[in-house]
Amino acid sequence: MLVTVLGAGAGGGLPQWNCACRNCVDAREGRLPRMTQSSVAVSVNGRDWAVLNASPDIRDQLDRTAALHPPGLRGSPIRAVVLTNGDVDHVAGLLTLREKTGFDVFASADILSVLAANPVFGVLDPALVTRRPIALDQPFSPVEGLQITPFAVPGKVALYLEGETVETEAMGEQTVGLCLTAGGKRAYYVPGCAAAPDWLVAKLADADLLMFDGTVWDNDEMATTGTGTKTGARMGHIAMAGPGGSLARLADVKGRKVFVHINNTNPALQPDGPEAQAVAKAGWTIARDGMEFRI
User: Fold this and answer.
1) Pick from 3, 46, 8, 90: which is nearest to 262 by CA?
2) Is residue 164 over pLDDT 90?
3) Strands (E), the chain
4) In what order do the strands lie in the sheet with 39-43?
5) Is the pLDDT of residue 121 over 90?
6) Pairing assessment for the beta strands 185-190 and 176-182 based on DSSP bridges
7) Fewer CB within 10 Å: C terminus or N terminus of the chain?
């Protein structure tokens, strides 16, 4: 299984256009690597690829990834896009993929209904781009040799779908994780997750590669950095730190562990800081754009 991180950042990327926090300033001045918004590409044979979430930055992501360049005058090795939720940073890139090249979009019925309700996604020619519903806990094969099984994880609806009250740890089709298997190897892709209950910890224990929500270091990170008021939990994301955080809860996962979907405010992006050292000591890697894994 070949896995390429197209974008390691959360919504807004790094630097975020309207932010001058320490990380964003450092990225603009070249002291930190830039990150585009969350997306991963997966292949088994190196020719046929599935893109997991279509970032708003997908044009640049594909341009700098040689394996995803057109194989001829027109066309693409991308056979499928698989969506884990309806967040803007995961679906807006579909609009870029509208230039008359066929692929399949795999998503839960809930997420497909979100696309159907917004006429702008009609720019994807239905004669070329087929929308395929996926069911929780039922495997499907988006490209040759790769099997994916979606499963519900605690999360919430996309921001633009929120009502007066929001259930931040809802279970259902609005937020899913993906179990990817090929050649006897198993990877998990969970870019959005609000909590790590015991059943999820047990499920992820057999991972050869775990790509997991690394949005915030601390639940109150937005407030402490002066960049916002929402907690990580309110945004539907588990913190890395703390007794209920991902570092503690997923400590026993033996495979390669990689944080993805990392917010521009996360202090773990500072390579010499105590947070980054704690991440490394716990056996985790902070994803960067262009990072590749072979399992």
Assistant:
1) 8
2) no
3) 2-7, 39-43, 49-52, 78-82, 103-108, 129-134, 140-143, 146-152, 176-182, 185-190, 209-213, 256-260, 284-286, 292-294
4) 129-134, 103-108, 78-82, 49-52, 39-43, 2-7, 292-294
5) yes
6) antiparallel
7) C
Q: What is the pLDDT, as a whole number, of residue 209?
A: 98
Distance of alpha carbon 193 from alpha carbon 211, whole angstroms: 11
Task: Supply angle C-alpha 171, 14, 23, rounded to 5.
Answer: 110
Q: 280: part of which helix (H) or strand (E)?
A: helix 274-281
Mean pLDDT of 267-286: 98
DSSP 70: -
Tokens 């590749």: give the residue: 292
Per-residue pLDDT at 245: 98
Q: Which two tokens stand for residue 58?
A: 């997908």
Task: Classify residue 274 by burial, with Cβ atoms within 10 Å: 0-12, 13-18, 19+.
Answer: exposed
Which fold does the domain 2-288 belong to in CATH? Answer: Metallo-beta-lactamase; Chain A (3.60.15)
Angle, CA of 210, 249 and 189, to the nearest 5°: 20
From CA 153, how far away is CA 177, in angstroms rounded? 6
How many beta carbons lie within 10 A of that of residue 99, not counting itself? 10
Measure the CA–CA gap between 219 and 235, rounded to whole angstroms.
Answer: 10
Tally Cβ neighbours within 10 Å of residue 173: 21
Token readout for 148 is 């994916």
Segment 119-133 mean pLDDT = 97
For the chain, helix, strand, coil in percent to 5 are 25, 25, 50
Each residue of 58-95: pLDDT tens digit?
A: 999 999 999 999 999 999 999 999 999 999 999 999 99
Q: How confident is the model at residue 132 (pLDDT cuts 50, 70, 90)?
A: very high
